Amino acid sequence: MNVSYLFLAPGFEEMEAIAVVDILRRGGLDVRTVSVGGGNEVTGAHQITIRADLSLEQIRPEEAECLIFPGGMPGAQHLSECEKLMTILQHHYDQERTVAAICAAPALVLSHLKTNRKLRVTCYPGFEKYLPDFEVVTDGVVVDGKMITGKGPGFAIPFGLAVLEQLRSAQVAGDVADGMLLL
């Protein structure tokens, strides 16, 4: 378990994907972008095209330390409609591994999870209705055990740092934040 996967579907929110990948790589994590539903080139919600490192068929879910889901529309919807990905997500969650989602993804993707308790999450305003079995709060970033959620694009950097802190340490996250002149 030494790789993290960040999933990209057409219409993903570019800031939430790129900022998080950048922060995690600065922190020394092996994070790979994964295209879902097409070729390796994925175009985001604001017409920025990213070349993913892998396709969904190429990943090794059993090696994943963390699964990361950026929001954006219709990107988050496309992620949620991928049955294979939702099966991988449920298995990963059941193994008590880290899951991170931001913006619309907590509502559209994480709502597929079958959990044994009410998870505390945040999401993009207006998407709370998709989370009737979750405790939805308005905080910018929420960490509940191995679940990390972010509210939207403006929280991409603090969300990425929270993921880094969860996977490595507060010291590593602080060092990355210092290097980015955030603190």
UniProtKB/TrEMBL annotation:
<dbReference type="InterPro" id="IPR002818">
    <property type="entry name" value="DJ-1/PfpI"/>
</dbReference>
<feature type="domain" description="DJ-1/PfpI">
    <location>
        <begin position="5"/>
        <end position="166"/>
    </location>
</feature>
<protein>
    <submittedName>
        <fullName>DJ-1 family protein</fullName>
    </submittedName>
</protein>
<dbReference type="Pfam" id="PF01965">
    <property type="entry name" value="DJ-1_PfpI"/>
</dbReference>
<dbReference type="InterPro" id="IPR006287">
    <property type="entry name" value="DJ-1"/>
</dbReference>
<dbReference type="GO" id="GO:0005737">
    <property type="term" value="C:cytoplasm"/>
</dbReference>
<dbReference type="InterPro" id="IPR029062">
    <property type="entry name" value="Class_I_gatase-like"/>
</dbReference>
<dbReference type="InterPro" id="IPR050325">
    <property type="entry name" value="Prot/Nucl_acid_deglycase"/>
</dbReference>
